[in-house]
Amino acid sequence: MGCENILVAVDIADEAEQLLSAAQELVADEKSTLSVITVMRPITDFYVKINLFLAIDSGKNIETDAMKHASTWLSGLAAQFGIDSQNINVVLGDPRAEIQRIAENTQSDLIVIGSHERHGVGRVLGSTAQSLLNRVHCDVLVVKLLRSDAG
Question: Residue 79 is part of a domain; what is its CATH number?
């Protein structure tokens, strides 16, 4: 059974292609919509002094530059998969909250997100995928990602 509105949540990593390929297989028909989102955590949340120093020193804002880079990258990737440019979302914020917000705005019936095997502290703290399961109104497909260096 295919889905009508699929939201694919990707990081800026080689594994994004795996997620988009998996999502394309689930598209119901040509009327279906495939959207993609990448969420960047605000640098200022963690490194306020560094960001302010660099902004003053260079006249640039690290977050602005990072968002431009992410938009360029995601637009190119989305074009490879035939995703309309208006269905590309590059946002700054908390990944769980932003993915949930975009899923609601696009009336997604499925969120596709990747997960790497976790060890130690990462397993205890959980992941974005795990927390989304309890927050969103739609199904969540977690794709076990193969690392690009796994050969």
Answer: 3.40.50.620
